[in-house]
Amino acid sequence: MRVTIDVIVLAGDRGPGDPLAQSAGVAGKTLVPVAGRAMLTHALSALAGWERLGNVILVAPALPAYEDAALASGLATSRLIQVSPAASPSASVAQALARAGPSRPLLLTTADHVLLKTGWLDEMLDRAGDADLLVGLVDYDRVMERFPGSRRTRYRFSDLSVCGTNLFLFQSGRADTVVEQWQAIEQQRKRPWRVVSMLGWANLARYLAGRLSLMQGFTALSKVLGVNVSARVLDDPLAAVDVDSASDLALVESVLAGRAGRC
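Structure (tokenized):
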């Protein structure tokens, strides 16, 4: 029998002031309809069908609209634990980790990951190695090949350019300490060179000169954080696609329409 895995889902977004939320007339971005269902409903629906799922720790405002979106996913209410958002994403993650308790491994993702597939979660778990924290990434060139002209944040290493996936695997309690250190740079996550600067000026210079490999970057990050942090490059370029803008929304709806057309 497989061990079940709890999943933290971040849905505590910028509220009604978010441009997508304003346009759709909803209380927050993750309630914006995509192909007729809220982003949050899509993400939780994917998790509801995962055979390895334990509980879902949902970080979302305690509002009826979020409760309705969660119920529409088909996820059993007995598996859902709601946690109110904190002042920042990293603080929200810290609260969710505390609520989850000491059991590990544990996965973290976001509710705007509308195209979420449980196969990506299996990839993270089945090839995690001995990392305390595993970060899901995707080959940037594969994303551009699939979606020419789309905009994704790009980290250019000497051997591979990558995009983030909003997928993280906490394999030990030691990884929890990374959340505290992340608060210092979370507002810079869309500026790769500022994120890499936490590795020190020497490594930043190597990165900017195109001489820092992906493995070297994560080795340096592990030393800085005092935690074994590693990367898992996922096969599916869709794993890099979340919804942050109107163009992302259109892209995701086109993917979902393609899936429906093949049914």
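The chain has eleven helices and ten strands. The CA atoms of residues 157 and 214 lie 6 Å apart.
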